[in-house]
Design goal:
The chain has about 90 residues and is α+β, with helices and mostly antiparallel strands. The protein has a single domain, classed as Alpha-Beta Plaits (2-Layer Sandwich), CATH 3.30.70.100. The protein contains two helices and five strands; from the N terminus they run βαββαββ. It has helices at about 15-30, 50-60, and strands spanning about 1-10, 30-35, 40-50, 70-75, 85. It has a five-stranded mixed beta sheet with strand order 4-1-3-2-5. The N and C termini lie far apart (about 25 Å). The mean pLDDT is about 95. This is acylphosphatase.
Length: about 90
């Protein structure tokens, strides 16, 4: 299991990015959460087998059709227990 923190910038709010990411994560068996940030970015914490997490990270660079991703910053994050993949409130 690996654990990653993602910070996604660009046109990623108002384009169903969070719903798309939940769908992608669930299809890969990834657990974690996603939320909008007040600065217009999207933040997520994801965990799962390395191959699946890497596949999700690769997909986040494209996002849903209406998104225009300019950057995805990925960092390691401490292990956390998640069940499923959730949408958290904006911060």
């Amino acid at each position: 299991m690996i654990y990653r923190h993602l910070w996604i910038t660009g046109r990623v709010q108002g384009v169903s990015y969070r719903a798309w990411m939940i769908e992608q994560a669930e299809s890969l068996g990834i657990t974690g959460w996603v939320r909008n940030r007040a600065d217009g970015s999207v933040e997520a914490v994801v965990s799962g087998p390395a191959e699946q997490v890497d596949a999700l990270v690769a997909r986040t660079h494209r996002g849903p059709p209406a998104a225009r991703v300019t950057a995805v910053i990925v960092t390691d994050t401490p292990a956390a227990v998640h069940t499923g993949f959730a949408k958290h409130p904006t911060v």
